[in-house]
Write a structure and sequence with these properties.
Strand content: 25-35%
Oligomer: single chain
CATH class: Alpha Beta
Number of helices: 7
Distance between the termini: 46 Å
CATH topology: Spore Coat Polysaccharide Biosynthesis Protein SpsA, Chain A
Order of helices and strands: EHEEHEHEEEHHEHH
Number of strands: 8
């Protein structure tokens, strides 16, 4: 029997890539995904393409207030109860075997978190943004998979952060001395475009500095 997983996808205003992201979740091999899409206070309510109208695997939740990506993920995570939890941003996509590979690694290694590699790619409308050419370990919400028990132990994302919320969460994960496992397979195709967090936050590092300060305080 295929493994049930909860997938949480926050979206705010940028819906040009949403269908591609959703499709990459629904075609995952060897798992039964339940996708919770959280409309994080978009200017106009998010509407899914008609082809998803009768798909019971998808739940759309709207937050009338903007919670930031971390807060939206928290809201979506609370709506599920599957044994595994993972996240995907609405402008990124997954390889079709991504979830199956990560769950297999979790089961084989006994790790509390499994992640793979991220490949960055440029949207065709991208202007003046750098795209890394090499694969990198996917220390990102969209590149990792965890048992729900790990989520319960570490807790929610810091909803007060506009960026760096996964780094903050991962730091708390490490403080608890939990175990991670990294595989060599690509588990996230990350789109670089002019409205991504990578682009909009590139000139404002205050959120990342806040994460670093909190991490140093925990270590102290």
């Amino acid at each position: 029997m295929a493994t049930r997983i909860d997938v949480v996808m926050p979206v705010r205003n940028v819906t040009a890539f949403l269908e591609e992201a959703v499709d990459s979740v629904l075609v995952q091999e060897g798992v039964l995904p339940r996708l919770v899409i959280v409309d994080d206070g978009s200017d106009s309510p998010v509407e899914l393409p008609p082809k998803y109208g009768s798909d019971t695997r998808i739940t759309l939740i709207r937050s009338e207030t903007q919670r930031n990506a971390g807060g939206a993920r928290n809201l979506g995570s609370d709506a599920g109860d599957s044994g595994y939890l993972t996240f995907l941003d609405a402008d990124d996509v997954w390889p079709a075997n991504r979830c199956e590979l990560l769950i297999r690694e979790l089961d084989a290694s006994g790790a509390d978190l499994a992640l793979g590699q991220v490949r960055h790619f440029a949207d065709r409308r991208m202007v003046g943004l750098h795209v890394p050419s090499e694969l990198q370990p996917a220390y990102l919400a969209g590149g990792a998979m965890m048992p729900r028990e790990t989520w319960r132990r570490v807790g929610h994302y810091n909803a007060g952060l506009r960026a760096g919320e996964f780094i903050d969460w991962y730091n708390r994960f490490k403080v608890l001395n939990l175990k991670e496992s990294v595989i060599g397979d690509i588990t996230l195709h990350r789109r670089v475009h002019n409205r991504s967090t990578t682009a909009t936050q590139r000139d404002d590092r205050s959120e990342y500095l806040k994460v670093v300060r909190e991490w140093m305080n925990r270590k102290g």
